[in-house]
């Protein structure tokens, strides 16, 4: 730039270009165009006069100016555990050197042909950026906020009255961009002409300030095959991510937090497109449901919506709501009790949730039993044969869901039971041909403890259920009995299985001075100093196993009676 920046805050400088009522709005870009706000010096080096970046802060629920080397985790990664370290990272987004101040009643930038827009901030105007040209790309764009990341109203400028970014084109990607402080939606994919599109590595923050039923991200009015990935949707008046009257969408590794404060569309995510997939997301502290599955607009009843390995907790209503009764399709109808049937006139075919009947922890192994059917049936229904049962921890003694809103049934009555939410994914089992399930999960390092609450959901043919009733984790009952008999030359130890037991370990403390030899029908053995052990891989119910000890040396007989047994499963 040949002129000095005309805006400065602290060490940051940038250029403002004002489109005023005298000049009128900028003309449409009717030919293929690249609009790049990168500023070059006279020697063609980049002029980075606005050097910091912008990033969301989970703790303060704000956008913050940070060093550009910073990043945050988004979603929960493939393990379904929040902040465990396997999450993708969202890099801080650079502040641009150029901002364009629009004029009321018109979009700031309007592209009717293919466009590549990068490194620019737009605010004021009716919409920030409108894109009609297929195969367009938006990179490092600020829509609705100033070049320093601030709210325009803080410095006396009008906000964008409607949407930050409005996309009516096919196969358009929004990457590493932020939509914030807009009167309407943050980033909007709109219309049946949108058969693919992406919003990735982007943030929708504090949008819908003029309409409580508007959202952070949306695929609307027939837009389909839109992917929202590695994103943050936070503090929006409506839903964080919406799918009103839309087609199939994918939401993957996004953090959808603290949305819905306008109370008209309070869910974190609302989805209505059949075949949609919502996986590996963090969905927390939204005013309404975590995820609302419901028909909207002219869409038929949605089915085949897969919701898997998300961390859903501390939302105001239930974690997952398959809406049957709320005709507004905004609020949901809370817990819909099981009826033992699949009914595809209902969202996700009205699939039943799992009922956990046993949750027993010993060591790092969690034993689970239960069924999928009417809660009062006591056993499963063959309608759910082969279903995947995902097990989640609701809370433990230190953290997790607060249970708020999770005991309200459709119709408004209150249940003595709580249903979810699913905070930490623990693993999955498969229902048998009768709809029953049973198995062991390795929960090492996931915070599961005696007294924790757990819940589960069902996935069958792509349809995911609501969360089932919470179950309390208990200790696993003892399955084996150990007895020791002293003989003239040593001791005989018997292990009796009271029911089938796996990985049983017998311990014995050898007295000082004793010389030992051992034989028997154990599978492996060893010692750690004077602590000896013998392990049995599997013992059938009623079966007796033996360890025969032969003693030698000079020792105290009374010290030979130190035995213990550990039924690991």
TrEMBL record:
Domain of life: Archaea
Any coiled-coil regions, as ranges: none
Residue ranges of domain Right handed beta helix in the record: 115-282
Classification via SMART domains: PbH1 (SM00710)
Descriptive protein name: Right handed beta helix domain-containing protein
Origin species: Archaeoglobus fulgidus (strain ATCC 49558 / DSM 4304 / JCM 9628 / NBRC 100126 / VC-16)
């Amino acid at each position: 730039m040949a002129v000095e920046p005309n805006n400065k805050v602290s060490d940051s400088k940038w250029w403002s270009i004002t489109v005023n009522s005298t000049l009128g709005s900028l003309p449409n870009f009717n030919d293929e165009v690249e609009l790049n706000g990168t500023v070059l010096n006279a020697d063609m080096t980049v002029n980075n006069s606005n050097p910091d970046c912008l990033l969301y802060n989970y703790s303060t629920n704000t956008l913050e100016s940070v060093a550009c080397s910073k990043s945050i985790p988004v979603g929960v990664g493939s393990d379904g555990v929040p902040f465990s370290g396997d999450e993708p990272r969202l890099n801080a987004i650079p502040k641009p050197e150029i901002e364009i101040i629009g004029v009321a009643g018109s979009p700031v930038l309007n592209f009717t042909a293919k466009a590549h827009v990068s490194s620019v901030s737009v605010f004021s105007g009716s919409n920030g950026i409108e894109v009609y040209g297929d195969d367009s790309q938006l990179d490092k764009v600020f829509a609705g906020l100033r070049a320093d990341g601030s709210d325009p109203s803080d410095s006396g400028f009008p906000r964008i009255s409607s949407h930050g970014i409005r996309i009516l084109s096919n196969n358009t990607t929004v990457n590493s961009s932020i939509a914030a402080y807009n009167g309407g939606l943050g980033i909007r994919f709109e219309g049946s002409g949108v058969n693919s599109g992406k919003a990735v590595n982007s943030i929708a923050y504090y949008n819908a300030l003029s309409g409580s039923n508007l959202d952070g991200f949306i695929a609307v009015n027939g837009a389909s095959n839109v992917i929202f990935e590695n994103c943050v949707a936070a503090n929006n008046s409506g839903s964080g991510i919406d799918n009103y009257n839309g087609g199939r969408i994918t939401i993957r590794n996004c953090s959808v937090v603290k949305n819905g404060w306008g109370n008209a569309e309070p869910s974190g995510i609302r989805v209505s497109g059949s075949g949609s997939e919502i996986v590996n997301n963090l969905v927390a502290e939204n005013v309404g449901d975590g995820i609302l599955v419901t028909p909207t607009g002219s869409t038929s009843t949605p089915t085949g919506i897969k919701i898997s390995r998300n961390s859903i907790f501390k939302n105001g209503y239930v974690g997952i709501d398959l809406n049957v009764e709320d005709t507004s399709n905004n609020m949901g109808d809370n817990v819909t009790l099981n009826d033992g049937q699949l009914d595809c006139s209902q969202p996700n075919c009205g699939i039943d949730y799992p009922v956990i009947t046993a949750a027993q922890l010993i060591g790092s192994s969690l034993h689970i039993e239960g069924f999928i059917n009417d809660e009062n049936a006591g056993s499963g229904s063959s309608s759910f044969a082969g279903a995947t049962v995902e097990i989640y921890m609701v809370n433990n003694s230190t953290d997790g869901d607060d249970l708020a809103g999770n005991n309200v049934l459709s119709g408004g009555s209150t249940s003595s039971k709580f249903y979810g939410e699913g905070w930490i994914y623990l693993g999955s089992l498969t229902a048998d041909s009768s709809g029953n399930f049973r198995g062991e999960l390795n929960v090492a390092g996931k915070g599961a403890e005696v007294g924790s609450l757990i819940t589960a959901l069902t996935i069958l043919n792509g349809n995911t259920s609501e969360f089932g009733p919470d179950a309390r984790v208990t200790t696993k009952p003892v399955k084996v009995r150990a007895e020791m008999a002293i003989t003239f030359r040593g001791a005989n130890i018997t292990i009796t299985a009271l029911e089938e037991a796996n990985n049983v370990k017998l311990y014995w403390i050898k007295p000082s001075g004793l010389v030992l030899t051992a034989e028997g029908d154990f599978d492996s053995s060893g010692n750690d100093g004077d602590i000896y052990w013998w392990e049995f891989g599997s013992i059938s119910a009623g079966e007796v196993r033996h360890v025969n000890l032969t003693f030698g040396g000079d020792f105290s007989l009374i010290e030979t009676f130190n035995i213990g047994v550990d039924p690991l499963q």
